[in-house]
Amino acid sequence: ETGVTQSPTHLIKTRGQQVTLRCSSQSGHNTVSWYQQALGQGPQFIFQYYREEENGRGNFPPRFSGLQFPNYSSELNVNALELDDSALYLCASSFGGNDEKLFFGSGTQLSVL
Amino acid sequence: AQTVTQSQPEMSVQEAETVTLSCTYDTSENNYYLFWYKQPPSRQMILVIRQEAYKQQNATENRFSVNFQKAAKSFSLKISDSQLGDTAMYFCAFMKMEYGNKLVFGAGTILRVKS
Question: How many Cβ pairs within 8 Å bridge chains A and B?
Answer without folding.
Answer: 66
